[in-house]
């Protein structure tokens, strides 16, 4: 990873390297401490000490970091900083990087739409991808074909431990993706000239808020990477340590179906939408969408709302089959329960405390978006005749 950055001639800020060190350490600790060994079988007390180039600067925001990581993983974090952080060698030849925007480009449908819309708006984009087996070539294809072509860097953290038994929930892992974006943003010419660089995390609002579909899916069973409260907390940390970036999710108030309908270039979206990825179990089914996990259901619902043919291959295509592999699979049942709960008990009761945060100032808009997202899922279940 470091060598790839050097080869590109990028020279990130010291604070950006420190943030990456924090992110890598958090992901590693998250994978070491198993939840089933904690007092309640889930919530852990995680203590982390990180070497930084300027530990005093980071120690001043320790409580904010603790709160952000605790919200992200629903554990109790205690992070401290110590001297010893080091900067990688400077590149032999510094590259001039004229992009004005950094965007995460995962190979997924939402980030594809985000990059299309940003390019259409005139932004000069530097795409950042976290390499995942099965998505590498797709990321490069999207970068090449969107707009006049995007600058792209593909990075992989490979943070892991040698322990044979690891914690698989890993709710912190995507913070490294965000750290990669901060690293690149601080390398841009405009950043070095004193400007603030926007970082775009393009995620539909339903997945970003990700309210637990059922009471059994509380806490860490619902990922919070793009949740507006988490992004606010991380933004506060970055501001406090002097990193001039602004994290934005322009689609926080839109469903996935609305993102597809309102995409600024329908032609390129139609060309690439079906080869983008959404599945939470993509590798498990030989790089094929399973068709039944929650992200797959939201994807299928968005194509239905878009009104165009979904050419995606799904391993479990016909969800009307009433067995444990299809309609009775727990994710399918969870969506069904959520739809019925909102219909019978009301949307607010179903949402629960998912939007309860003083850091969220658009609660009414997010509430309405969640209602529309559930309607899209309801129309999918009706169309598939899920029993």
List keywords for this structure.
387 residues, alpha/beta, five-stranded parallel sheet, two-stranded parallel sheet
What is the fold's blueprint, element by element?
Elements: H1 2-7, H2 14-32, E1 45-51, H3 55-59, H4 62-73, E2 76-82, E3 101-104, H5 109-120, E4 125-130, H6 136-145, E5 151-155, H7 175-185, H8 189-192, E6 197-200, H9 205-209, H10 228-240, E7 245-248, H11 256-262, H12 266-272, H13 294-306, H14 330-345, H15 347-351, H16 363-384
Parallel strand pairs: 1-2, 3-4, 3-6, 4-5, 6-7
Helix pairs in contact: 2-7, 4-10, 11-13, 13-16, 14-16
Describe this structure in words.
The chain has 387 residues and is an alpha/beta fold. It has a domain of 116 residues. The protein has 16 helices and seven strands. It has a five-stranded parallel β-sheet, sandwiched between helices. Strands 1-2 form a two-stranded parallel ribbon. Helix 11 runs parallel beside helix 13 and helix 13 packs across helix 16. The longest helix has 22 residues. The mean pLDDT is 93.
């Amino acid at each position: 990873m470091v060598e790839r950055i050097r080869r590109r001639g990028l020279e990130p800020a010291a604070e950006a390297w420190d943030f990456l060190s924090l992110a890598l350490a958090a992901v590693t600790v998250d994978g070491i401490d198993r939840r089933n060994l904690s007092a309640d079988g889930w919530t852990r007390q995680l203590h982390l000490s990180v070497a930084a180039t300027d530990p005093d600067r980071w120690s001043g925001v320790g409580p904010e970091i603790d709160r952000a990581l605790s919200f992200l993983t629903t554990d109790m974090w205690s992070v401290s900083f110590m001297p010893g952080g080091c900067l990688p060698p400077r590149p032999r030849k510094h590259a001039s990087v004229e992009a004005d925007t950094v965007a995460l480009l995962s190979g997924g449908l939402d980030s594809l739409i985000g990059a299309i819309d940003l390019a259409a708006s005139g932004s000069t984009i530097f795409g950042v991808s976290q390499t995942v087996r099965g998505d590498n070539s797709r990321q490069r294809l999207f970068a090449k074909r969107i707009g006049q072509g995007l600058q792209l860097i593909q990075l992989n953290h490979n943070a892991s431990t040698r322990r044979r038994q690891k914690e698989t929930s890993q709710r912190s892992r995507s913070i490294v993706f965000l750290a990669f974006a901060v690293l690149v943003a601080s390398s841009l010419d405009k950043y070095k000239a004193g400007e603030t660089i926007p970082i775009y995390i393009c995620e539909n609002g339903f997945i970003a808020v990700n309210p637990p579909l059922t009471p059994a899916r509380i806490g860490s069973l619902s990922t919070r990477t793009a949740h507006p409260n988490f992004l606010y907390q991380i933004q506060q940390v970055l501001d406090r340590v002097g990193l001039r970036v602004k994290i934005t999710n322009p689609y926080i108030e839109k469903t996935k179906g609305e993102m597809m309908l309102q995409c600024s270039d329908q032609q390129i979206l139609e060309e690439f939408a079906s080869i983008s990825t959404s599945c939470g179990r993509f590798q498990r089914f030989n790089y094929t969408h399973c068709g039944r996990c929650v992200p797959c259901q939201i994807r299928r619902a968005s194509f239905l709302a878009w009104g165009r043919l979904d050419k995606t291959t799904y391993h479990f295509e016909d969800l009307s089959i009433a067995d444990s592999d299809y309609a009775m699979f727990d994710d399918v049942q969870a969506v069904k329960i959520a739809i019925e709960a909102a219909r019978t008990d009301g949307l607010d009761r179903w949402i629960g405390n998912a939007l309860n945060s003083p850091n969220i100032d658009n609660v009414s808009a997010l509430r309405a978006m969640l209602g529309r997202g559930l309607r899209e899922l309801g129309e999918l279940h009706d169309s598939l005749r899920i029993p």
